[in-house]
Amino acid sequence: MTITDFPTTASGVRDEVPDPLFPAASHPAEPASPGEQALAAARFQLAEASRFLGLDEGLHLMLATPRRSLTVSVPVRREDGRMEVVQGYRVQHNLSRGPAKGGIRFHPSTDLPEVTALAMWMTWKCALAGIPYGGAKGGVAVDPGALTTRELERVTRRYVNEILPLIGPEKDIPAPDVGTDEQTMAWIMDTYSANAGYSVPGVVTGKPMTLGGSLGRAGATSRGVQIAALQALSRSPEDATVAVQGFGKVGALAAQYLADAGCRVVAVSDATGAVVRRTGLDVAALRAHAAEAGSVYGYRDADALSHDELLEMDVDVLVPAALEGVITASNAPRVRARLIVEGANGPTTPEADRILTEAGVTVVPDILANAGGVIVSYLEWVQNMQAYSWSANEVEVKLRDLMTTAFQAVASLSEERDLTLRQAAHAIGVGRVAEAHQMRGLYP
Ligand code: GLU
Fold it and tell me: Does the beta carbon of 249 sit less than 6 angstroms from any atom of ligand 1?
């Protein structure tokens, strides 16, 4: 295999944006799936970073391919007695800086290319955050909303059983992602521990407090988004308006923390629709409504808005906090926010990135903006490995310190070398991993 076997452009269609290092070869004409597009985007960003760092083609190829990928079939007994089989994945992209780390996603459209892209982003994210992990991601192609709790438990336990040879507190440590939560992590911890014959809290992070979870983990990604947004804002929070796309685990608390910091959160959306109030939403009331109604839909103290309108709103800060590929070449020219802070992984396609950069929009990239989650996962794991627990304040101080250090490193490199924040973040993340590879050497 050579590097030219990969789709070399952001969209997976070769003749749009040639890979800066390895010019395009032929590519099938059919449009790439969302997962393939995410993977092409991740490889495009890596190619840019590799060129900037002057990495040789062999090392670039190693970093462009995952270390291990496991696909498993997960049979699940439905409540009516039928058996269905769903596909599950665990990809360990890189292990050069420590055990693999990354969440598990339950979503109907998750596939191997998407999980691979997400695992690659975890590698750079952990390196950029300065925490001693490689990158991994898992996924199961199910819609958790369409399963009963007992069905979800059976899917989770069987999936964990299938990926058991890969995971462990010193090997690969899963965590929550889209569609999974504390309860899922508790089942993972229990299934792994039952197989081991003793309790192993450090096998997974994002656990409930009673099983060795960490104070501050539940809101950690959102807290990190708030820290990154406030660092990047060129005005005082009181003068800033914010729109948040996605009102789930990350978006709802990011909206809350930004409102707590003084920002005016004027619009939020979830899968059911969007709501807007130019004078500012009462985020706490909206969260209470969403917790009860299951969505922002029907919240009375605001007007309705379409998903597209939210992304194109005239606000200072836009926080995409849902899935990949939502800011694309087609809507990027209409984005009016001056600052985008990526709570989600991969929300902006590389074509959109280029359009936004040309328009002078600052994008705080995913691997920096949403690193708060994995940073507190690391703090949880350290506490588990020491059988000790820290106060909320200790966790908060360490999170703030690691986020701020990463932000400042990215901002200075961007300034010094005239890079976008994304290019600088990737240059640092990829550079640290490349350095680890070079120091370790190739075995045999
Ligand atoms: N799923 C989160 C992410 O994408 C957290 C991963 C973790 O804590 O390991 O960063």
Answer: no
Contact 177 CB / ligand 1 (< 6 Å)? yes
Count CA atoms closer than 13 A to 215's CA, side-chain side. Answer: 11
Distance CA 122, CA 426 (A): 11
* pLDDT of the residue at 23: 45
Give nearest CA residue, ligand 1 atom 8.
374
- Using the CB atoms, write b or e for 220-252: b if 16+ within 10 Å: bbbbbbbbbbbbbbeeebeebbbbbbbbbbbbb
> Considering the domain boundaries, does residue 153 fall inside one?
yes
pLDDT on residue 31: 64
Hey, what are 361's tokens? 């929009």
Q: Between the CA atoms of 15, 20, 22 and 26, what dihedral angle is there, to the nearest 10 degrees?
A: 0
| Separation of alpha carbons 87 and 92, rounded Å | 17
Q: Choose one of 180, 377, 384, 395 to mutate for the ligand 1 pocket test, by most ligand atoms within 8 angstroms of C-beta.
A: 377
Q: From the CA of 124, how far away is ligand 1's center (Å)?
A: 12
Predicted pLDDT of residue 22: 45
Q: Is residue 77 part of a domain?
A: yes
- Retrieve residue 173's tokens: 């440590």
Neighbours of 38 (CB within 10 A): 28
Low-confidence ranges of the chain (pLDDT < 50): 7-17, 20-28
Final residue in a domain of this structure, among 170, 200, 230: 200
- pLDDT given at position 26: 38
Task: Pick from 114, 214, 370, 379 the residue to mutate for probing ligand 1's pocket: most ligand atoms within 8 Å of its CB.
Answer: 370
Domain that holds residue 147: 66-200
| pTM, to two decimals | 0.94
Rounded to the nearest angstrom, the distance between the alpha carbon of 204 and the centre of ligand 1 is 11
Q: Which of 77, 218, 256 is nearest to 151 (CA)?
A: 77
pLDDT value for 1: 54
Residues with active-site annotation:
137
